[in-house]
Write a structure and sequence with these properties.
With 448 residues, the protein is an alpha/beta fold. It has two domains: 337 residues, Alpha-Beta Horseshoe (pyruvate-formate lyase- activating enzyme), CATH 3.80.30.20; 73 residues, Orthogonal Bundle (Arc Repressor Mutant, subunit A), CATH 1.10.10.920. Helices cover 38% and strands 21% of the residues. It is built from 15 helices and 19 strands. The strands form five sheets. It has a nine-stranded mixed β-sheet, sandwiched between helices. A three-stranded antiparallel β-sheet has the order 14-15-16, covered by helices on one side. Strands 17-19-18 form a three-stranded antiparallel β-sheet. Helix 3 packs parallel to helix 4 and helix 8 packs parallel to helix 9. The radius of gyration is 21 Å and the shape is globular. The two termini are 17 Å apart.
Amino acid sequence: METAALLKKYNVAAPRYTSYPTVPYWDNENFNANGWLANVAITYESHKDEGISLYIHLPFCESLCTYCGCNTRITKNHSIEVPYVNAVLTEWRMYVDVLREKPKLKELHLGGGTPTFFSAENLELLINGILENSTLVPDAEFSFEAHPANTTSEHLTMLYSLGFKRLSLGIQDFDPKVQFLINRFQTSQQVAVVTAKAKEIGYTSVNFDLIYGLPGQTIQGLADTIGTVIDMEPDRIAFYSYAHVPWLKPGQRHYTEKDLPLGDEKFALYQLGRQLLDAAGYKDVGMDHFALNSDSLFQAMTEQKLHRNFMGYTNKHTHLLIGLGVSSISDSWTAFAQNPKTVEHYLDKIEQGILPVEKGHFLTGEDLEVRKHILNIMCKENTMYNEGIPEQVYGRLLPLLRDKLIWVTEKEIRITTKGRSFLRNVCMAFDEKLWLKQPKTQLFSSSI
């Protein structure tokens, strides 16, 4: 079967599997904050020497990018910066108190929103506050997301001095028509300046985010964008499918489906992007990611050390991920917890001295087994069952096997080269909760 036909066949609503169970299938009724903190303490005690991952959500943006599916707060009021920083540091101290010592940090990531909405001075206040209540493992990795239009030399220099060596620039597309429709503006010159300055300072990895399937996007426009990007030589490139979910993100109603490249048009954009990146030396890493041979993400893949969590793909494996700030999700390996999704609710809980977790899930033994196989497929492109592949899983895999997207033995499932574009579809075969309770409405974006 030709690739285009396969893309059509498997273009179904599918989770991105940054967790299992996925958030819509969490058992929130049986979740409670005390049980969550007990899970955190147990996991930390068992794995304290490996260090923990820390994600900090900085939700503020000065304008709404209409394509965006992230949790954001649109404002030009920068007086919110210090109160929010103080709230995050208060939350961090709550966790430090539970751990009963300054934990070792292995990984720290600033996400958004727009982290560079905050002044360099206030980001320094935030990071210093985190570091005062932590220690670092020798190979700790700090990274942040940045908007090319507001990232200054001060941001880059200050964050580098505090240990940040990796940054991710949101680009999406350089086509002026696309930028107008998605209300996201930055020039190639701005991106080039930030990239060059970061490399001059000493950043070891620069990632560019690109999206295919955006409103107004064309083959020529995307080819021009990717050509410009390749000339700037980022170390990594994330090439995501646009997720059209206007029922969740009303900003996407700024345009209609008539503006979107759908079906064959979107598949063509996807195939073009992969071909151009491959020709430029960017290697497939997991799902939606490409990296040069010299980048640590590619090296982690080749060494079978790639990991995936709520921050996406990482070369650092930890059993404990703590998320701070609005809507952040934490993972203690045996439990998940999410903070309130509004700034007001989050700040209110902090002011009351309450750990701001709003919902979560305690993983069962079955959950952990399924999670293991999904992580293996997402990160290692193979997984092994000790007692043989369960009958129900094998049955769901049969169409993928017939289409030569996977290779299967009695106990092992392995992704073929052709199957690398269909990791989400393969993982769905393991997702017992999804098969047990099929959603009545669309909960997830399309897989391609």
